[in-house]
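Researcher: Let's continue the batch. This sequence belongs to PD-(D/E)XK endonuclease-like domain-containing protein, and it's 735 residues. Same format as the previous ones, please.
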Amino acid sequence: MEFFVPWCGPGDFYTAADQFPEASVTPVEGSGPALSFSMAGGDLRLASDTLARELLLWSAGEGKIAESTGLPFPGWSAIGICGDREETASAAESFTRYGLPFSPKDGVLVSETILWKSALRALDLASEGWPPGETADFLSGLLFSPFGFPREDFAAALPCGRKGWLDFLGERAKKTPSRNTPLRAFRRVLAFTDTLTAGGRPEELLSALGKLAPDREEMKGLITEAREFPSLDGMLRTVNVAVLEAGEKERALRDLVRDLGDSGRAVLRGGEAAAFLARWAETASTRTSPPVSPAMAVHQGTPPVLTSAAVWVFLGATAPHWPGQVRESPLLNDDRKGFLHDSLDLGRSHLPLVPEKRKQREALFRRLAACARELCLFVRPLADGSGRPLPPSPFVTEAEAGPAPWLIPAETSYERSLGDLLPQAVGETVCVRGVEIPAECSPRKGLFRRGHLTAPLPLPEKIFHLSGLDDFAACPFLYYCRRMGLEPAAEELFRRDLAGNGFHRLWELAWKEHLSSGGSLEELADRFFDAAYGDGYPGLLSDQRLFRHRADQREKNRRLGALQDAMERSGLGEARSEQRREFPLPELEIGGTVFRGRCDRMDILGDGSALLFDYKSGRSGKYTKSLQLAAYSIALREGPERRSASAAVFLGLGDGSAAGAKHDGAPLWLDAGKISLAELESQAAEVMKRAADSIASGDFPPEYDSDRCRYCSFSSLCRRRDFRAEEEDNGEGEE
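Model: Same format as before. Here are the structure tokens for PD-(D/E)XK endonuclease-like domain-containing protein:
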């Protein structure tokens, strides 16, 4: 017999040749050691980006690889890459962004495809009773209705449950007849979940999984609609090959059933059915993508025997991987193995000891590095996902050492920490257009990002509504986004905005009746509740799912009525000479911008001064520093009546309390707190001046230290999270 045994260089390596000591060994001349060059990035993502960047620069004759090795770029087809699943996935993502050609040499596990992930999500949603928001997000996914899901109609209806969704989607299908309707997609999902619940033979379960994906006509429609999104091509192809894999397995099982008899007709239901599909998805691989040429070959795991390339990229060359944790067996330690070796005649059998296991890992490491004919690139992250340092593999240094090294080290290595995430715009540093931005590039200034966007953000008209003054004071960019209607539509069963409409309408009706005919405001709140909320939020009265919210709103309005009754008895009722509700304030013009406002309620006292009231759905204590009513006071004072406000009060439905500010000389019977209204007016005037300047210039800079950042909907637009960790405590949103 003739054996071909890989040589691993000098060292005490236990190989097949050691198992046949009587055999003669004939060395075969190799091509000699290749160059080695090590590069590292702050984390896995940056390490992958660094590799992609340096390969791209090398193809242009520049970069660290060209400087350190002096080798010319060999062409994309002469580069091979190996690494584990996570490392190759990260590298593929970086190659895609940098536009580098690569060709995976291994298929994707079905468990990692969008088809299987959608199947798992469908089972979860079915067990939860098809809740509104989660089901809407699911049906908006790529496999179902990514371009035609009626999100606005959904936000208004908020269907729930199997029947609710079928009714809702059925009504929409009548309005927009098409083969790619959300109704067809939802029926596909129901067919899959129903099959697993009712049970079926293995081949029937695989058939149901395949039918979860769009059929041929639906897929054609998806491809047509996705023409403007070429990045979706790969995902759609992966779905198709996963369906093909399921179909092949289904046919194989149907053929096998004939030979298995009764045992082949076993029915799997519920958890057993899901477990069968999960096991198959975790072991079945899709077909490989059609080869691209010229392109780098990416091998997941160990490449095939005798694979080689002029340049070999070795991903993940860290000590935790190479050698990794090599330990004694808990049941059979090295001492016991040695005793067995000495006392038993094991022949050529050998139980490897810990040092030998390490040597085996080193031998495999060297064989993978030997895939390089000219240059081996070792790529590794400097830290793991938790920020713990990852030292380089000692095998690299050992392979480069000794009189007959396995690899010849390049003159230098290259490390790129997270602090070097943005390339420094120094000298002739190259930046990849569309992918990178230099640290000093205006308008963004690296990680500190203190310079805001200089591009103007014009508003359609130079009008500022004073109800948005607190938004502007907190963050001008927040104000701009809300003003332009960029706030995501509310997708909750209880609509706070509509409840606010009913709340304001209620107190308009209650005060009108109270001033004309008298009566307790607490009782009037209960009396006018249905009429007011029927106008502003009819769904609250008709939808039985909102019963708890309906009762809560009624009780809170009664409580707020009791508070106002107490204020009436304390002296307000006698001091009031006139009341105006939903009162349009006099307009103010500052720097060409018109400031407008509408006061919920203004009580004019006998001395001519005014008390300003604003009704809030939340707790009144949240508005003690609000500038809204202070700005109303300024507008009132500057108007034709020249009327001054002695106090400004917020009435909070959330806790049935009042809070505000007042001037010196305000009525003693009015408990409006100790905050000075004059100070708030001064602040409001300054903010109004800044708002006028912003509207004139179109400059609405984000305020990254605002307390609104915890629950802001626009953090992805201002890019705050790019350089500042998101708070774990998101706080509560405004009411």
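Researcher: Any comment?
Model: The first helix runs from residue 44 to 59.
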